[in-house]
Structures are given as structure tokens and as C-alpha cells.
Amino acid sequence: MTYKTKLGLDENIVAALSYVGFWITGIILLLIEPDNKFVRFHAMQSLLISLPLSLIIFVVGWIPYVGWIIADFLGFGALFFILVLVIMAYRGALLKIPVVGNYAYRITYQ
Questions:
Q1: pLDDT value at residue 1
Q2: How many CB atoms lie within 10 A of CB 6?
Q3: Distances (CA, A) of 21 to 3, 6, 61, 79, 104
Q4: What's the gap between Cα 69 and its chain centre?
Q5: CA gap 15, 108 in Å, rounded
Q6: β-pair partners for 4
């Protein structure tokens, strides 16, 4: 059973959208959805995963000669990882990433 959100969409769709825009949509959905804990969990996890990942890829890209190659591989891996999270959120799964997911769960549900 899916519940509606303030955006008028099902909660699994909004939870999946929280990963699509990386940390930006995570912040936006945390502000828009104060009541839906499923959406807030995925938005918080999106923020806690994609912000450090974006910063790491940006910093690695500045390494002389090989940094941009390493950053490209990290970026492709990050996109694949985010795609898996989008699919799992759309299916309605509460997939917790080991450290970050537990922290997001504690913030959201307790």
C-alpha cells in the first residue's frame, strides 16, 4: 500500500526521485515532506551518500594527469550505485546502506 505525499505522487515515486537529483533533491524533499517517514529516510540517505561522493569525485578530478580518469570511473560507479538505489526505492524497499543508512534511519524513525 502506497501513501500520497504533499507533491500528490505515491511515496515510492517521490522516494526514488530523491536520489535522481543527488544531494539537491535530497535537501528539497526533506524540506517539502515533513510527515512521510519513508520519503524522509530516502531523502536523508540520498543527501548523506551523494554529497560526500560528489565532493570526493570533485577533489579526485584535480589530481594531475590521472585524476580526471579516476574521477570518471568513480562517477560511473556512483551513477550505477544511485540507479540501484532508485530502483529499490521505487519498489518500496527500505534499503539501508551500512553506515549511512543506519544513521538516516535513526534520524528519521526515532
A1: 53
A2: 13
A3: 22, 18, 21, 11, 18
A4: 24
A5: 13
A6: 10
> And the C-alpha cell for 2?
502506497
Which residues, at least 6 apart from 81, have a Cβ–Cβ distance to it below 8 Å? 49
Kindly tell me the sign of the dihedral angle through the C-alpha atoms of 35, 105, 29, 94. Answer: negative
Per-residue pLDDT tens listing for the chain (110 residues): 567 787 778 888 888 989 998 889 989 988 988 888 888 899 999 999 999 999 999 999 898 889 899 999 999 999 999 999 999 999 988 888 888 888 888 888 87
Whole-model pTM: value is 0.85
Instruction: Report whether 15 contacts 48 (CB < 8 A).
Output: no
What letter represents residue 32's amino acid?
A: I
Q: How far apart are CA 10 and CA 4, in angstroms?
A: 5
Q: Compute the residue count for the chain.
A: 110
- Dihedral sign for Cα atoms in the order 28, 32, 38, 44: positive
- State how far the Cα of 30 lies from the Cα of 106, in Å rounded to an integer: 15
